[in-house]
């Protein structure tokens, strides 16, 4: 890795400096950076190989511990996994060559470990069915491999169809509308088509059932990113200062109240705390990222808390969840069974785990979907789970890193929102199974068995890669920026609305933004193209 | 399967998992170098026009320092134009000059303007900030061309 020493190749003297100092021409100083940024696809390939090794090793361990012969199924499973990874890697090489090298391997390893654990639970279910004399249950692992393949198709499709993430800004309202429809659809459909285990968050189409909320998550992030880019002034207008924070004016609370209403409707009509929490959390964090005002988060948390309290008073399903959360052992054989079994599983695993294939994770209901974390926790222990959570953390921070590095505001908000969505979903699901927060029944990204979740998360990762590709791409391969030539007639609409707002506005301390944000010198220049956007 | 083998493979798998995490962290670390270069170069390129338009008086005063130059360390040769706003130096990602130096603190020092003079201020760093040979304790005026040492990095104000 070459260090970015002495931009321009010159020493400390002023000889190297003039190239950097040329005003307003950003491209002039970028070659120094470009030399330092390699595509790093080799690193990605190596890490993917490592992920494949870990997954295969885990699979072999499971088989060995379960006293299974190394069957052909195993070979198919492993080969299919590697082929899928290889396809994804080739696609990234071709369509997003400068993308972050870590994102895909991290997702792949999570997916691989998930596959192993699903296969492991399959073995237990098959054994139990055999002992009870029932028919052999379908192998979820094989279906999950199929879903992984579909996920990679979505992943590649996303990379191909979205060559520049800024084009998505144009479809902000469409995305928001489609997301809302997807979110509302299960509540409107008859319960026979939408209800699974009490939560109405499904659409069942014959054998396949999809969870539209997973896709709505991405669509909402796209919508909020484009909405906040255009309407940011609305959220930063000064209100009263109180308790050391600048609070917004009451009339500017409208959009937040709408989001709150949607979250509450999901909670009440679909009986789904998880999706509701996901949705509102993303809204709040994106608002915070866009405005840097903690007051929005506080207001949001207060009204969400009030709404959740009201829901707890009126909705019986929410009451059940809360009472289980407060004391899972009160009704051990009934409602608290799942959570307490999960806790026992984690306790059995302890620090080092029982070893892959040596535990009894199948005792927990939904051991391969919502409660896959307790299954993993039982078999790989605290040490393994900590590594797994760290991998999630890395995945989220890579998205945040792309958000910091990318130069357009829409990209920043998009990547930050997507990264946070992953982290937040992990928090909600892990917090649920370890009884930190009420259990909500959403899936762990990439690990849990579940088609919609996997496919949606691969699409999400593709978007993150797209943004990071734009962030790391050297300037020489870029189109001329509008800043350099305002005469460029064919500047895309989305670019016009986002390009002018430079990173200085999001980078806080140096530009003294803490004092009054919208008063920064970039604001007036940023507004002109926005007007153009509306005009068109 | 023998118990011993089971225990060994169990530990081995966990070690492998953590090895992956460490490998990933190494990639993150190498990425930081690229990031610090990007950060340090960007403000210098973008600030001069702004400082020139919003504060013409300062641009006109030819006597004061105009730029901050890194003369030694990993970022040697980097030049940041001064436009009246304080310069934050440290390992934090949002610093004006992002140092990737084991001897630098997250928020190490601030160089800010007061009147026509620039002052350096240590922000409670672990290893201290040195103006020429003297350790900086409070806000200290920085004469032109006097080296400020932060870890392995040396910076100077130039006119």
UniProtKB/TrEMBL annotation, chain B:
PROSITE patterns, per database record: FHA_DOMAIN
Region Disordered, annotated ranges: 40-65
Highest taxon above the source species: Bacteria
Domain FHA as annotated: residue spans: 87-136
SUPFAM superfamilies attached to this UniProt entry: SMAD/FHA domain
InterPro entries: Cell_Proc_Reg/RNA_Proc, FHA_dom, SMAD_FHA_dom_sf
Record-linked Pfam families: FHA
Key words, A-Z: Phosphoprotein
Protein name: FHA domain-containing protein
Organism, as annotated: Actinomycetospora chibensis
């Amino acid at each position: 890795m070459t260090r970015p020493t002495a931009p321009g190749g010159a020493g400390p003297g002023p000889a190297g400096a003039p190239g950097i100092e040329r005003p307003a021409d950003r491209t002039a100083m970028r070659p120094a950076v470009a030399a330092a940024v390699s595509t790093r696809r080799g690193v990605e390939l190596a890490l993917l190989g490592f992920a494949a090794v870990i997954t295969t090793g885990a699979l072999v361990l499971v088989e060995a511990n379960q006293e299974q012969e190394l069957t052909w199924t195993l070979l198919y499973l492993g080969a299919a996994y590697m082929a899928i990874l290889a396809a994804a890697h080739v696609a990234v090489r071709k369509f997003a060559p400068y993308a972050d090298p870590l994102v895909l391997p991290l997702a792949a390893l999570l997916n691989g470990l998930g596959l192993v654990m699903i296969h492991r639970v399959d073995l237990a279910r098959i054994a139990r069915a055999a002992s009870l004399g029932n028919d052999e249950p379908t192998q979820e692992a094989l279906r999950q491999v199929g879903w992984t393949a579909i996920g990679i198709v979505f992943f590649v499709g996303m990379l191909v169809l979205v060559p520049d993430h800024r084009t998505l800004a144009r479809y902000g309202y469409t995305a928001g509308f489609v997301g809302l429809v997807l979110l509302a659809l299960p509540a409107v459909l008859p319960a026979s088509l939408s209800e699974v285990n009490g939560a109405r968050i499904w659409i069942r189409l014959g054998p396949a059932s999809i969870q539209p909320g997973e896709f709505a998550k991405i669509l909402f992030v796209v919508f909020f990113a484009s909405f906040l880019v255009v309407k940011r002034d609305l959220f930063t207008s000064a209100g009263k200062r109180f308790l050391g924070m600048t609070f917004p004016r009451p009339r500017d609370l409208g959009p937040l109240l709408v989001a709150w209403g949607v979250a509450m409707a999901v909670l009440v009509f679909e009986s789904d705390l998880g999706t509701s929490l996901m949705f509102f959390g993303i809204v709040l964090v994106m608002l915070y990222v866009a405005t840097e005002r903690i007051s929005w988060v506080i207001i949001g948390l207060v009204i969400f808390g009030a709404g959740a309290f009201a829901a707890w008073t009126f909705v019986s399903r929410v009451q059940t969840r809360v009472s289980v959360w407060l004391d899972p052992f009160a009704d051990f054989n009934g409602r608290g069974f799942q959570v307490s079994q999960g806790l026992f599983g984690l306790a059995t695993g302890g620090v080092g785990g029982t070893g892959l294939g040596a535990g009894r994770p199948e005792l927990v209901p939904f051991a391969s979907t919502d409660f896959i974390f307790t299954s993993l926790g039982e078999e790989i222990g605290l040490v393994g789970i900590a590594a797994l959570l760290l991998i999630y953390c890395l995945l989220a921070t890579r998205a945040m890193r792309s958000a910091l590095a990318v130069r357009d505001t829409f990209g920043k908000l998009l990547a930050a929102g997507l990264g946070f969505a992953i982290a937040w979903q992990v928090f909600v699901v892990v917090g649920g199974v370890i009884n930190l927060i009420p259990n909500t029944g959403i899936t762990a990204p990439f690990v849990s068995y579940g088609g919609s979740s996997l496919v949606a998360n691969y699409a999400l990762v593709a978007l993150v890669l797209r943004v990071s590709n734009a962030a790391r791409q050297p300037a020489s391969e870029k189109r001329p920026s509008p800043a350099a030539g305002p005469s460029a007639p064919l500047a895309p609409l989305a670019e016009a609305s986002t390009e002018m707002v430079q990173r200085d506005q999001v980078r806080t301390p140096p530009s003294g933004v803490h004092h009054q944000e919208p008063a920064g010198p970039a604001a007036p220049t940023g507004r002109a193209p926005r007007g153009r956007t509306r005009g068109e | 399967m023998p118990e011993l083998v089971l225990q060994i493979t169990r530990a081995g798998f966990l070690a492998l998992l953590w090895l992956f995490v460490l490998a990933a962290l190494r990639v993150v670390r190498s990425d930081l170098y690229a990031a610090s270069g990007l950060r340090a170069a960007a403000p210098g390129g973008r600030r001069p026009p702004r400082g020139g338009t919003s504060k013409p008086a300062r641009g006109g005063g030819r006597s004061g320092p105009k730029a901050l130059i890194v003369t030694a360390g990993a970022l040697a040769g980097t030049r940041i134009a001064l436009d009246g706003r304080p310069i934050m130096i440290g390992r934090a990602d949002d610093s004006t000059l992002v140092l990737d130096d084991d001897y630098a603190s997250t928020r190490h020092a601030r160089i800010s303007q007061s009147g026509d003079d620039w002052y350096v201020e240590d922000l409670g760093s672990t290893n201290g900030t040195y103006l020429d040979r003297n350790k900086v304790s409070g806000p200290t005026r920085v004469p032109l061309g006097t080296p400020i040492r932060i870890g392995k990095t040396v910076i100077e104000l130039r006119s």
